[in-house]
Amino acid sequence: MAVVHWPVELQHGQVGLRPLRAGDGAEWAAARQRNVSWLRPWDATQPPGAEDGARTFRAMARDWNRQARYGRMLPFVIAYAGAAAGPRAKWPLVGQLTVSGITYGSARWANLGYWVDEQYAGRGIVPTAVALAADHCWFTLGLHRLEVAIRPENKASLRVVEKLGFRYEGDRPRFLHIDGNWRDHRIFALNAEEVGPGLVARLT
Fold this sequence. Notes:
Elements: E1 10-12, E2 15-19, H1 25-34, H2 36-39, H3 57-69, E3 74-80, E4 93-103, E5 109-116, H4 125-139, E6 145-150, H5 155-164, E7 167-178, E8 181-191, H6 200-203
Parallel strand pairs: 5-6
Antiparallel strand pairs: 1-2, 2-3, 3-4, 4-5, 6-8, 7-8
Helix pairs in contact: 4-5
């Protein structure tokens, strides 16, 4: 049975996670437009013949939050205090982290995906965001296993899982449709009994 905790906000140092909201559309679209060339090689795409109908950002955000309330996913904004002064509520959006495919029953697993604005890459923001989300999944939601699928060419993302100690489990040929074609991915995972006090603790 799903353990639902939504909406939820998480923070460690200058990095915060908060729910993606319908009102984030303009800021999200500006970040995506600013980072088109940076993100295109890693962005999920629809394979031929499987196109979904176009929908607005507001509709997407509402649908994702509805799924979050049912315990199926966690659609987070990555917010960063270093991008602006002021209270956490005003921290700007610098990326996105999504926990998807949440499965309970005898499996109790999910997968993590993320992106960050290029101008904030290399500051430890994504490792912190992943650690926050992962600890929430293990210690609050009671999940057992978390996976991250990464293209072999994505060196920045490979550094994230290496820093956090995710275990490499092997390659999956033509695993996901990314940037217009089926792409090979490397699979990294951690189980709850492997993380001790959690991933945030590994950052300190």
